[in-house]
Amino acid sequence: MVFSSAPFLFIFLPVLFILYTIIPHLKVKNALLIIASLIFYGYGEPVFVFVMIGSVFVNYVLARLLVAHNDHRKLFVSLAVIFDLAMIGVFKYTGFIIENINAVTHLGIPNPHITLPIGISFFTFQILSYVIDVDRDHSLLSKNYFDVLLYISFFPQLIAGPIVKYHDVAMYINNRHQTLSEVSQGIRRFIVGLSKKLFLANAMGEVATAMFGLKYGDMSFATAWAGALCYTLQIYFDFSGYSDMAIGLGHMFGFTFLENFNHPYISTSIREFWRRWHISLSTWFKEYLYIPLGGNRKGKGRTYINKLIVFFCTGLWHGAAWTYVIWGMIHGLAIMAEDASGLTKFTKKHKWLGWLYTMLIVIVAFVLFNSTSMTQAGEMIRHMFVYSRGNVNAYNALVSVLTPWHIALFVIAIIASTPLIDIVKPQLENSVAFNAVSYVAAYGLFILCILNIANASFNPFIYFQF
After folding, report:
1. Of 27, 183, 193, 199, which has the fewest beta carbons less than 10 angstroms from its beta carbon?
2. What is the DSSP letter of 175?
């Protein structure tokens, strides 16, 4: 996290929560959350916190202007879109564009290597959704700049999502209540998310990092599949764990954020996968790009083009590299093929075949997502589908990371990625005994998390780079 984990858990969060709870007035609570959120972001980004504040101000003014001058509202919306996309473009894609120009023209333009503000893709999409929501429904306009700043800067979802659309949380900014039930459920959800991150994501990440880090000549069929499978689990538990923490913290402070994951690895088609994976991003693109482009209302040909545009942008949103773009296009082409062939009807009848096909595409695409170059991705994928025993280096690399601990957590991760717990939970959640046990278990997990933080040296957050 922007704060290192220990100060966040032991100082920042407890002090903030206590102060928030004892303050009686909601406006003062909001002011406290804004100050705390800016400190949280500014601790790691002391300069770029002003970029975020300025971005919010520009969009706030444009939203006020489009309501005040309704006849020219399209102009102000266009200015907001241009400003927000330009800001992402400058910080995130300048180097990528220059590298590609140099590759084609050999001009040798110097790369400025602009530092990327943490979470810029998330908070820029959020503030853009505010302007568009106000354009669609003028009643959503906030005349208070600090209300809009709270919506953007609120620390639980500021730097790694989920992407919170304004119309989903506008009701909570000046009208919310902090209840004991909400707080207790929020704390439990936060601990579950933290545990997913620290134990499952990190353990799978250790294996994936070692396998992806092998020299091409040291790769084998086993190392390639171990790396691909473990990274597929790592990115899910990393991001869903952070989403759980954000949702849990939101409950603690009276906000309700929408779910961001719904067991995507049980999907039987790529279309279903995107209804379950990174839901806040997929719905954002649907509401603010796919539908404005025409959606599926202008014939099949235009529908396919619109979907490819969306998935091209989805890949590019994740990172300034062709590996991300191709990752997005693989998913877009797969959905287009499903629509054209009627494959989803077949997979509904043959769920296991649909699941195998879906996971094969997801896993291979994630190899591209995690690779630093097309060459590395190509070597990994080649070893996944062309059997090779490898050499002693491949064997030693596997033995060093596939410990009983990692194997046990791999099995737990597989089980935890299924809806098994959700199936039995409705029958148990009304039980006093079950709730008591769940909170005791959460407390035990929290103690283990503290011990893990004290001893761990490997603790990456994948989505901080976006």
Report:
1. 27
2. S
Count of other CB atoms within 10 angstroms of residue 38: 18
Packing angle, helices 48-68 and 145-153, rounded to 10: 130
Sign of the Cα torsion 379, 383, 389, 392 reads: positive
Average pLDDT score over residue span 221-250: 95
Whole-model pTM: value is 0.91
- Higher pLDDT residue, 133 or 346? 133
Instruction: Evaluate whether 360 touches 385 at the Cβ level (below 8 Å).
Output: no
Angle separating helix axes 120-136 and 145-153, nearest 10 degrees: 140
Q: Tokens for 321, please give them.
A: 């590299």
Task: Say how far apart CA 246 and CA 375 lie, in whole Å.
Answer: 36
Helix, strand, coil shares of the chain, percent, nearest 5, are: 80, 0, 20
Residue 341 confidence (pLDDT) above 90: no
Type of residue found at 278: H
pLDDT digits (tens, 9 = 90+) for 426-457: 666 667 777 788 888 888 998 998 888 877 66
Nearest to 270 by CA among 366, 127, 191: 366
pLDDT score of 2: 45
Residue 263 reports pLDDT greater than 90: yes
**Residue 217 pLDDT > 80:** yes
Q: 268 is written with which tokens?
A: 């039987």
Phi, psi of 347 (to 5 degrees): -70, -25
User: Are residues 392 and 219 in contact, defined by beta-carbon separation less than 8 angstroms?
Assistant: no
What is the sign of the dihedral through the CA atoms of 368, 374, 375 and 379?
positive
Rounded Cα distance between 166 and 170, Å, is: 6
Tokens of 188: 């439990």
Q: How many angstroms separate the Cα of 356 from the Cα of each of 352, 362, 385? A: 6, 10, 15
Q: Could you report the per-residue pLDDT of 385-404, keeping only the tens digit for each?
A: 998 888 888 888 888 888 99
Active site residues: 318
Contact 367, 380 (CB under 8 A): yes
Smallest CA-to-CA distance from 211 within 436, 366, 94 is with 366
- Residue 101 has a pLDDT of 92
User: In the chain, count of helices (H) and strands (E)?
Assistant: 25, 0
For residue 142, the Cα-to-chain-centroid distance in whole angstroms is 27
Contact yes or no for 321/236 (Cβ under 8 A) = no
Average pLDDT over all residues of the chain:
89
CA angle 317, 207, 438 (to 5 degrees): 85
**Which DSSP state fits 151?**
H
